[in-house]
Amino acid sequence: MSKLSVDISNIYEFVSNKQVFAYKEEMIRNQELLETKTGKGNEFLGWLNLPSSITSEELGKIDNVAKDLISKSEVVVVVGIGGSYLGAKAAIEALNNSFASLCNNKNNPIVLFAGQNICEDYHKELLELLDSRSYSIVVISKSGTTTEPAIAFRLLKQHLEKKVGKAEASQRIVAITDKSKGALRKLADQEGYRTFIISDDIGGRYSVLTPVGLLPIAIAGFSISDMIAGARDAEKHTSADVRFDENPACIYAAARNALYRKGKNVEVMVNYTPKLHFLTEWWKQLYGESEGKENKGIFPAGVDFTSDLHSMGQYIQEGERILFETVISVGSPIKNLVIPDDPDNLDQLNFLSGKRYSEVNRMAELGTILAHIDGGVPSIKITIPELNPYWLGYTMYFFERACALSGYTINVNPFDQPGVEEYKKNMFALLGKPGFEAKGKELRKRLGEF
Ligand code: PA5
Question: How far is the CA of 213 from the centre of ligand 1 (A)?
Fold first, then answer.
């Protein structure tokens, strides 16, 4: 099976091959820290050998629960935020028909999400939609105490119980949470929901290849076995046994760190298919939460081309020279569409007649990379042959591994996220949570008392 390729030839006008290869020894050390579980955050390495250790029985159990929910539901609402949301969303968007929600595919329910924001309109409109649909719920929270999914689940649970009765609702709710801790575990045990466990040693943003990602992906109708097969190959191809120069995770981690050292503080993930928009969102969380701490870390940003060439393209071409880009290039599209000839040729575009859409997109990609290099933006290119479950599983594992290696390179713990607690404290204080009174008073004063 072929590897995902990482092409760094378009960064050499900015950093030398020698500067990238200067990271070789460090990457070998970092790989050892991971495999011997002796680096920072080593209690969160459950994801590392997950693809090779997950069994077909475990995958079968996920598929069986998915089949049951599929048979009962027009819609499945997945409740979760951050790492308990983005992996499933990214995979489903990447693999689905672009217009899945309008396609009337009778085989699989539409997967919708809730609790990934606290927007009143979003949740009210969701409930209004669900009034007339048969639906089930997958509620995902490792801690079982996160505010956004917890309040969304309150709403949905009550809505579903009212609609189908408590007994039937408990058959239509599946919880994915800690094996023993947290409010969701308690509730699931009390109500008799079916559950899957998120292992203690896997953090949210590294959990896409656990039931957190796999159950919603299976419900949407995609092969989780193929996804794991891809991830398993990625685990092999990025392991410590693979030489630095043949190891895509090491090369990517080394290249981005070489650029970072040269003042390229922002990495812009670029795609040329809108299906990858949420893969970028998932990647932003993975890299942003893993590296952005102790006043360090590359800022992960994302654009969808060619749409954003008509907006952010200007900044990338001519703004502050603090950027490098990482292009995810997909080898071939799944479908075939040819640009028609137009006898009037008023738009003067008949030179494109007979060409495939993907050829135009490819030339946009190649031309843009060169323009950006000329404008001072180095470009890393990651190529996957096609968008299918195998390559998605491969790509996601590859990014996880490279992220851990990168985090160790800047000497941070890539598996914690202490910074995300600050907003929560302020929000609770402003909402009058017991125990936060003094903080609430202080914040209201700063906000000009309201
Ligand atoms: O990466 C992380 O750990 C976070 O993004 C969490 O996944 C997110 O905060 C949701 O947490 P929980 O699953 O505990 O509700």
Answer: 13
